[in-house]
Amino acid sequence: MTSRPTPPESPQDTRAFEDAVSRNPSEWFHFCQQAYAYMESQDTQIANLSDHITTLDERTASLETKIIEESAANRNLLAQMKDKDIQIIEATVTARLAQQASLPTVRVITPEASGTSPAEETTAPHLGTTPPPAAGSTTSSRLSEKLPDPDKFEGSRSDLRRFLHQVHAEMTANADRLPTTTSRLTYVAGRLTGKAYALILPRTVFGIPQFSDYPELLTYLENAFGDPDRVQNAQNRLHQLRQRHQDFSTYFSEFQRLALEGEMADSNLTPLLFQGISRELQDMLLHNPPPSREFHQYANHLQTLDNRYRQHQQQIQRSQPPRPTLHQNHRQTSPRRGRSPPSHGPPRHTMPAVAPVNDPMDLSNQRRPWGPNRREKNLCFRCGSDSHHIRDCRKPDTRRTQARFAALNNEDLSPARSPDSPALDSRKSTPSPDRTENGVSLP
């Protein structure tokens, strides 16, 4: 039986079930028979599946054993091939050196200077020696172009991958310059410093690291300084990456680097890209929907929107007038004694040199209501007493009123206003209040 049996009714409680059974006992009996047969068939299928799974597990274990054995055989074969390659390279170098040493040496005869004309000069006599062999092709004897040495590796985890790739490139492009195992190992060891060199120092004898070849040395460094969770860490940084106030191209370059580092599929990158862009780009997408949700087309559309937004912001900044600088002190020059200032048209009105009252940025001694010398004399800023400080002073705080009066007096004395100004006359006519408190004059 393959299909699951269905009960005649669906009672909600025990009494409803008893009533349904009493009404249709034959149907319920038939349902129980079918349910029991269905359960038996399911038990049989479960037992068969368990046997099949057991068989698959045994096959998997045997395959894993074979794979391990084949991997070990491949590693041994690879090591033998490397040793043979090294032997071939060493034999080639030795044969080339021996061939160069066996070549005959011909003494070069330099003719002496004579007073005869060139027509009377005779050729050098035949020496009877074997002439030197013709020079071979320059391409076979010339070494490859030397790549720049990679920067030294100090043991930083973030710098390990750079060092590994540059060493592999050096060994591949300049293999003829480093033909032996010793030369390759000493070269890699020479590019290590700090903690990285301290790691291989116990396995170094007479300056030569004791490894089979440079790949084993690089693997040794990667096991010590590598990041075992490199992919997961890159994915975590990719989910936290935000554009904020930087341009889209800078943000997208870092996004692509983390996506490749985290081995993310392109189909999963479009939602993450939308999540990390700025609020301005998200608002622009409401009125400019992308033509496609494909990752690269979506990124090109966002780049176009970001360019349009930044051009618009530049146009707005060019169209707006420059803002005046706050708290700008205008230098006012007074005419020299005995000379009258030149008059070229009506006098220009300049801004007063006095800062606003209670300006928190004005720290000059003239704006201090407590006077310029109370701090130096360690006096109370409020009353001027030397027996206590301002936190223990019992007199009321009238510094704000004093600062306002000081500002008014400085404004009256400002050279920006002429003596004939009506505002100045009105201030002169109004008597200034007596700045006293409890019979004591305030400073």
Number of helices: 14
Question: Would you count the extended β strands for me?
Answer: 4
Indicate the percent of residues in helices: 40-55%
Order of helices and strands: HHHHHHEEHHHHHHHHEE
Molecular shape: flat
Main sheet makeup: 2 strands, antiparallel
Portion in strands: under 5%
Point out poorly predicted stretches: 116-131, 133-140, 328-335, 349-367, 412-443
Average pLDDT value?
76
Radius of gyration, whole Å: 47 Å
- Order of strands across the biggest sheet? 1-2
Q: Which class best fits the helix and strand makeup?
A: mainly alpha
- Rounded to the nearest angstrom, the distance between the terminal CA atoms is 109 Å
Keywords: Metal-binding, Zinc, Zinc-finger
Domain CCHC-type: 380-395
Biased composition (Basic and acidic residues): 143-155, 373-400
Protein name: CCHC-type domain-containing protein
Quick summary:
The chain is mainly α and 443 residues long. Among the domains are: 14-90; 157-225; 232-317, no CATH class.
Blueprint (SSEs and pairs):
Layout: H1 14-23, H2 25-102, H3 138-141, H4 160-173, H5 181-190, H6 195-200, E1 204-205, E2 208-209, H7 214-225, H8 230-240, H9 248-261, H10 269-276, H11 279-287, H12 295-319, H13 399-412, H14 422-429, E3 436-437, E4 440-441
Antiparallel strand pairs: 1-2, 3-4
Helix pairs in contact: 1-2, 8-9, 11-12
